[in-house]
């Protein structure tokens, strides 16, 4: 309030003080601290991380995840290839899922068997296709 302003019926809420610590038009940022010497405004740098660039060990997969993968693979192979080995793989993989929490070593062995049966199923179907193609080629050959 200047001396030329009319008297107000309301009291000055700031008690005749400036509401800001600094004049907002003077170029000084009032809500921020004043610049300090180097190192005063920032926290100290972090210490170096030990072993930051060493190789990490690969994560260990749980038997449950491996069993789920084997189960899905065997189901797809059974539906697409109609192989009886796929049915055995489904059973073995389901057993591995059941044992994953309580007997992880047994589950890992069953997962290996499940994947082995899936691979054997693919090999058996490919061998069957080759045999059928060879028999068809031999029967259609002129005699």
Q: In angstroms, what separates the terminal alpha carbons? A: 120 Å
The overall average pLDDT, rounded, is 78
Taken as a percent bin, the fraction of beta residues is: under 5%
Q: Report the principal-axis shape.
A: elongated
Which stretches of 5+ consecutive residues score pLDDT under 50? none
Structural class by secondary-structure content: mainly alpha
Write up this protein.
The chain is mainly α and 143 residues long. 50% of the residues lie in helices and 0% in strands. It has a domain at 64-140. It is built from three helices and no strands. Helix 1 (63-81) packs antiparallel against helix 2 and helix 2 runs antiparallel to helix 3. The protein is elongated, with a radius of gyration of 39 Å. It starts with 62 loop residues before the first helix and ends with a helix. The model has no long low-confidence stretch (mean pLDDT 78).
């Amino acid at each position: 309030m200047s001396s030329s302003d009319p008297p107000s019926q309301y009291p000055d809420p700031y008690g005749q003080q400036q509401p800001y610590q600094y004049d907002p038009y003077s170029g000084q940022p009032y809500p921020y601290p004043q610049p300090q010497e180097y190192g005063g405004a920032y926290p100290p740098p972090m210490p170096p991380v030990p072993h930051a660039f060493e190789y990490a060990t690969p994560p260990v997969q749980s038997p449950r995840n491996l069993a789920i993968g084997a189960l899905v693979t065997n189901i797809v192979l059974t539906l697409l290839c109609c192989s009886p080995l796929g049915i055995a793989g489904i059973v073995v993989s389901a057993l591995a899922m059941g044992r994953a929490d309580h007997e992880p070593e047994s589950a890992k062995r069953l997962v290996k068997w499940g994947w082995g049966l899936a691979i054997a199923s693919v090999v058996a179907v490919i061998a069957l296709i080759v045999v059928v193609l060879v028999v068809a080629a031999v029967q259609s050959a002129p005699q």
